[in-house]
Amino acid sequence: MRFHHAGIATEDADDLAHRYTDFLPVPIAHRETFDGIDVVFLDLGGSYFELLEPRDGGAIADYLDSHGPGIHHLALATDDVSAALDAAREAGVDPIDDEPRPGAWGHDVAFLHPGSTGGVLLEFVQV
Fold first, then answer.
1. How far, in Å, are 19, 24, 27, 65 from residue 102 at the CA level?
2. 81 pairs with which residues across the strands?
3. Position 19 confidence tier, pLDDT thresholds 50, 70, 90
4. How is domain 2-126 classified at the CATH fold level?
5. What predicted TM-score, i.e. pTM, was given to this entire model?
């Protein structure tokens, strides 16, 4: 398992992407609208910033309303999300997702409850 990305909630993903690419030598690796969220991935050379702009309400919009822009979650790459979820459950960690589900960029994902992970929303990403 390794670090995959930091999910950053923002009101304007394109603006933030341009702001980052203006001072960091990083390209935009991928862009899509997924599940009511505009998503932009910036390639940090083996890991990513995932910029998340809500389009239709939902969890990112709720996060922005409650906390403002900033880091929403941290994601860890795994080759088997189901096995990672099982290991987390066995260690007493509460999952948000009982089973892997489709995520951005075609990856299967699953989230862990921040109450079980020191206040950090963690995501497993199958790559």
1. 29, 30, 25, 25
2. none
3. very high
4. 2,3-Dihydroxybiphenyl 1,2-Dioxygenase; domain 1 (3.10.180)
5. 0.96
Over the chain, what HEC string results? CEEEEEEEECCCHHHHHHHHHHHCCCCEEEEEEECCEEEEEEECCCCEEEEEEECCCCHHHHHHHHHCCEEEEEEEEECCHHHHHHHHHHCCCCECCCCCEECHHHCEEEEECHHHCCCCCEEEEEC
Give the separation between CA 77 and CA 1, rounded to whole angstroms: 6
Spans of all domains in the chain: 2-126
Length of the chain: 127
* CA 73 to chain CA mean position, Å: 5
- Contact assessment for residue 43 and residue 115, using Cβ atoms and an 8 Å cutoff: no
pLDDT digits (tens, 9 = 90+) for 71-116: 999 999 999 999 999 999 999 999 999 999 999 999 999 999 999 9
Beta carbons of 43 and 49 less than 8 angstroms apart: no
